[in-house]
Write a structure and sequence with these properties.
By secondary structure, this protein is α+β, with helices and mostly antiparallel strands. The protein has one domain: Glycosyltransferase (Alpha/alpha barrel), CATH 1.50.10.10. The strands form 5 sheets. Strands 1-2-3 form a 3-stranded antiparallel sheet. Strands 6-7-8 form a 3-stranded antiparallel sheet. Strands 9-10-11 form a 3-stranded antiparallel sheet, with no helix packed on it. A hairpin with a 4-residue loop joins strand 10 and strand 11. Helix 3 runs parallel beside helix 5, helix 5 runs antiparallel to helix 6 and helix 12 packs across helix 13. The protein is globular and about 45 Å long. The protein starts with a helix and ends in a 7-residue tail after the last strand.
């Protein structure tokens, strides 16, 4: 327990509570969101990853849409959606999955670089639209989100023999062999799976949260999950042979999403127990890498990892968490926007801890500006 407190004290260089309550974060989500908007979101709604040749991803657009909704900013939401429709959906939200990568092509023109889809971004876009429609009373958004969910079900799921339907990493390229299917555990926030399962209530969505729990139990040796996994006919879930046993930039989101999921979710206790790798090592801070074969954890993490892990820490060690974060100040994200991924991790982690948003037991978004019906 003493070593745990020491590690928490080290986190104090990252995140600050100005007084004794979680509601009093002195610098956090607002400053991070303001910097992100200034550096990385164009006035036309394009989200730019300045650390990777100024590309735009469907993930980036879907995350920005979520934060615009959390901030009750329908104007920004509409701009982001319009750019996404015109450029990633090829002008039609109703009949396409979005391309995952847009940027400067080899011939110097700007446009779609890779037309394949990314399932996590597609699910976030569907969720953003449906919840924006509900919270802002805009039925058009709900219809668009439901149509996108239908396309996801048709094109990004596979019926895994002996297991059932489960989403893969995207529309194409994730079924490399007749007996092998590939996916990414961090693509599937438990609250979102609960939301879509509850909303649609039939195959392939029905039972999806429990199947995700089974996946995590199958691959989370030592309490860690790898970045990528495969399902093999007759053998079940296992580590992806192409990427190996390592968990890092993708896997950190599994802990983030789990920490943000409602404690009233029926699978949350079991899921949380399977992800206590760092805590079992008496070192509750994340590392850059974990090895799910050797059970080792190593490497100094990027600053975004530490903030992303805090919601999970709070769930596991509430009293220690509050005690060690009373007088710590968060160092704002860099202004140059070159740490796109870390900034997004920070926005999710800090926004949740500051109670800018939460999720109920059905995965529905809770925001302070909207009273419960």
């Amino acid at each position: 327990m003493k070593r745990m407190s020491v590690r928490l004290a080290m986190f104090s260089l990252v995140f600050l509570f100005a007084s004794g309550t979680e509601n009093s974060v002195a610098a956090g989500f607002d400053s991070g969101w303001a910097r992100y908007r200034s550096c990385c979101i164009q006035t036309d709604g394009r989200v730019i990853d300045r650390g990777r040749q100024d590309v735009t991803t469907s993930e980036g657009e879907s995350y920005a849409l979520f934060f615009a909704l959390v901030q009750n900013d329908p104007i920004l939401f509409a701009r982001l959606l319009r750019w996404t429709k015109d450029n990633l959906f090829r002008g039609d939200l109703s009949h396409h999955l979005p391309a995952w990568l847009w940027g400067k092509k080899k011939d110097g023109r700007w446009g779609i670089i890779d037309a394949n889809s990314a399932t996590d971004a597609d699910m976030w876009l569907s969720y953003d639209l449906i919840e924006a429609g509900r919270l802002w009373h805009r039925s058009k958004y709900i219809r668009l989100g439901e149509r996108l969910a239908l396309r996801i079900a048709r094109r990004e799921f596979a019926d895994l023999p002996g297991f059932g339907p489960f989403p893969l990493g995207g529309d194409r390229g994730f079924h490399p062999k007749r007996t092998l299917w590939r996916t990414n555990p961090s693509y599937f926030p438990p609250f979102m799976l609960r939301f879509l399962s509850d909303r649609f209530g039939e195959s392939p969505w029905a039972g999806l949260p429990r199947r995700f729990l089974t996946l995590v139990k199958s691959v989370s040796r030592c309490g860690f999950v790898p970045d990528w996994v495969v399902y093999e006919r007759g053998k079940g879930w296992r580590r992806d042979p192409a990427t190996g046993p390592l968990g890092s930039y993708d896997a950190i989101r599994v802990y983030l999403w789990t920490g943000m999921t409602s404690s009233r979710d029926p699978d949350m206790r079991s899921l949380s127990k399977r992800l206590r790798g760092w805590i079992r090592k008496k070192d509750i801070g994340p590392t850059l890498f974990v090895n799910t074969r050797t059970c080792s954890a190593y490497g100094k993490p990027p600053w975004g990892f530490e903030v992303a892990y805090l919601p999970f820490v709070r769930r596991q060690e509430t009293s220690s968490f509050r005690e060690n974060y009373r007088t710590v100040r968060f160092i704002p994200p860099p202004e140059n926007g070159r740490e796109y991924y870390d900034t997004n991790l920070f926005l999710f982690g800090s926004g949740f801890l500051e109670k800018r948003f939460a999720f109920d037991e059905k995965g529905r978004l809770i925001v302070p500006w909207k009273k419960a019906p």
